[in-house]
Automatic annotation (TrEMBL):
This is Protein S100-A10. The gene is LOC111155621. PANTHER family: PROTEIN S100-A10, S100 CALCIUM-BINDING PROTEIN. SUPFAM superfamilies: EF-hand (SSF47473). GO terms for molecular function: calcium ion binding; calcium-dependent protein binding. It comes from the Eukaryota. Residues 5-44 form the S100/CaBP-9k-type calcium binding subdomain domain. Pfam families: S_100. InterPro entries: EF-hand-dom_pair (IPR011992), S100_Ca-bd_sub (IPR013787). GO terms for cellular component: cytoplasm; extracellular space.
Length: 91
């Protein structure tokens, strides 16, 4: 049986590969679809209309248009940190 932490870890790994498919990385369009489907609330509350472009540019460390597994999870960790105060206040 999975622990409380193992289940979300597995879910996030499957999420990455569901959008990356056999490529093993996310394209610009893959990342956009992932963000729209999995982080729609985050995107709706953005005041910066270029937020998605800035996120994608930051994650594409090599400038090759690809977002790898590590970069994708770096984004998720940053989102968790950014949302911490909100979630703690609403616990």
């Amino acid at each position: 049986m999975q622990s409380q932490m193992e289940h979300p870890m597995e879910t996030m790994m499957f999420m990455f590969y569901r959008f990356a498919e056999d490529k093993g990385y996310l394209t610009k369009d893959d990342l956009r679809v992932l963000m729209e489907k999995e982080f729609s609330g985050f995107l709706e509350n953005q005041k910066d209309p270029l937020a998605m472009d800035k996120i994608r540019e930051d994650l594409d460390q090599c400038g090759d248009g690809k977002v790898g597994f590590h970069s994708c999870f770096s984004l998720i960790v940053r989102l968790i940190i950014a949302c911490k105060d909100y979630f703690v206040a609403h616990m």
